[in-house]
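FAQ
Q: What does a multi-component entry look like?
A: The components come first, one per line:
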Amino acid sequence: MSAGASLLNANPGFLRDAREEQRKMVERYYADLESAGGPKRPVAYMLVGGNLTEIVRSFGYEVVFPEIVALNCAIKHKSLEYILNAEAQGYGLDVCGYVKNDLGLQAQGGVTPFGKVPKPDLLVCSFSGCYVYIKWWEALAETLGAPMYTYDVPYQRTEAPLKEDVEYMVAQLWEFIHFLEKTTGRSFDMEELKRVLARSRRAEEEWVRYLDAGRRRPSPIEAYFEAVFYMFPINVLRGTEEAVRFYETCNEEIRTRVSEGNYPVPEEKFRLVVEGVPPYTNYRTFWDFFRKWGAVSVAATYPKVGGLFDRGFYHDPSRPLESIAEYSLGAYVNQSWPLRRDLIKQYVRDYEADAVLIHGIKSCRSFTAGQGDLRDWLIHDAGVPTLYIESDHEDPRYFTPAQIKNRMDAFFESLDLRKRTGPSAGPAGGHAATTAGASATKEVAVR
Amino acid sequence: MRLVQIQPRSGSRPPEVPSKLPGIPSSAGAGGTPSEPLPVLLPSGQALSPDLRELRDLKNLEEILKNARELIRDLSFPTARAWAAGGGTSVAFFPVYTPHEIAHSLGMLPVTVHGGGEDLEITHADAALGSFLCSISKSTLELAITGCLDPFSAYVFPYICDVSRNLEGILCRLKPGSATHMLHLPQNFTSPATIPFLVTEYRRLIAKFEKVSGNRYQASELTQSLKLYNERRRAIEELSELRRKEPWKLPTSELYLLERMGDLLPPEAHLPLLRRSLEQARERSRTKRDAVRVLVVGPFCEQPTPDMLALVEEAGCYVVGDELNMLHHWTPTVPLDGDPLENMARSYVQTPVDIGVRATPIPKGDSIVARARAVDAQGVLFLTAKFCEPALEDVVLYRRGLDREKIPYLHMEFEERSTAYEQSRLQIETFVESVLFD
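Then the predicted structure of the entire assembly, as tokens:
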């Protein structure tokens, strides 16, 4: 395929009922939040990775995930306004875009294009995989005056959770439950938590069924750009019937797509595993860079930030607190680099991917620090053609479309050549790695 | 590891192993035994090498400072090489807080690696880490890639931030025959389960140390190590107190060197140097200047160059409190009765230190005001490392508190390889003038 291939290969029409349902679900969620807050419908802020939504909801809290609010702002092209507000408060250029979006938004009264985000009555620092969460939540606690509970999640350094780590976390969960009982005046109902967890599990199983569809050739799903839309219920509405129904709708649609031959691209030329957070500010543009080459993400790590359900973990109502602890430990960015490397290699093998694309972002050291080393390992140790590009997920000032497109075009051309002439031909066949982005535009690690 | 196959530039090759430690005059130590009755034998039975004994026996404060300056700039880590030459094993710890005493009790030399400083050119680490990361992470990885960290048998990265955490996952690929550990330092300081968890973390570390050192952990040895480290903490506290009360006698640019050399030396060698330095600094007859007393906040991990610290003082400040070398200030003392691991864990959790690398009490504004007043500072100098997110986020809340109390402050960012100081000088001088003439 030539570099001048047109956008004719793009096929956004494959997104139908489920996408529409997802859009309505998000609208309902924010509309519902507008009236929340205060003693009758208290609001808890929580972080996505390893979150405790089932426990918090069982005490009657509405849950806000400021990361998800921030990404929605970025998709609506509003993030820069809030980021600039935060920078005017003194938050530097190098502070996480999610943090700045949120603190800028709070300073502007929580008003977004999709609704007003209520102030928190409780801050749950479910500290899983990102140190910045602590600083962020401290700033919210100090600025908004809400009480904060820090749930310390040890870093996951072994494939199976360590017994002592789980015990430490279960002890904290009991303390958290007592804290909630005291704060709300309500009694904890273990049976209700088990019922909620049973619904969580059903949603998780349906979500995994959806993700597994990426193994098909051609893939009926876009496991990065589409799955990012569809991760909303598994993170925000887990434990509700609504989330279960949504994934059932998704899987019904996947079956229809297969029977009708309606795929993310008309001709699947490249199967990719994608690592990293997407540039929400330029989501469609970035997606187009894939589609024009007939490239489809068949597996991705980012939709797993809320939990690695596809690796066999499910909430277990018969071990409620233990399984919540294990869930928190298993959040993707709480995994050590050896575990992350192995996971990506398994994705390449299990989903028969041609290459890996890594999108590093300026804001997120947790996700990004070491992705260059990952690229080196993939190319040289695992023998997988890999492209590394850089921009940001929230700050549009760091997305340079021409540079990124050039890099991606060059990479896909190399992959195309490799497919036609065998692994030894072309820079991709010879294990090329390229870096593109606002500040990194050099060719590196080619041997 | 293929990254090392990229031809290093000549400037970044590992330095030659020195035949002796740098800067030690041939007369050092001459004239007899050290004045303090410190053990020459370490817990494992290993003796201090002649080079380390020679360094320990330096008599004159100016000589001590000169050696400290050279030692911390020497990227061949001569003390670890000397330790290895004597058959010992060394551990490289990433800042800020790490349990050095555990390594010491196992006969290992604990060293804090504060990156590569101003002399190391980054040629490989950029590719492994990405663009928007702090200098210390890149220079530490550069040191590993170019072989400068080869004298170490173990590498420990505490969870002080996401970058430090992730570095361990890169080092374990780079140094497959060594022990690496990401030490999860807990952040929940109210749970009764936290201290037992941290003891478990320490035991995991011990298991790795036992393997590489060949020595077995013994609680009694750790208690002895804690006793020695407590003495060192007391000596550093006395030096800090002198600096606070009479900063013209011991400026921070010198105190920093004295503390920092302790990150490279066994405490048996460091403690006598501190004691001698304290005696001599007290006796100095220096004139008090008309300078502004400032608290320096922010450089708790990546350290500014000694030249930068000297510049702050030359430009008209007395630094009377700081966040440099925080390992030595983490806790006043660790109790010696009972289980030493539990005592260490409790001391870590219950430290009064308010710092960006752990969850800290709010309002932060009140905290910084209290800290400034405790050292009688007239202003606060935020000296934050470029890309250091924990420091950059706390600064905003700190500034609000200072604004409320009308305490002046200046915020500057630095990088390890900062060499052009003129703009910094201008900023600090302007700040000083605004405080002095306000």
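Q: Is there any commentary attached?
A: Sometimes. For this entry: The CA atoms of residues 432 and 446 of chain A lie 6 Å apart.
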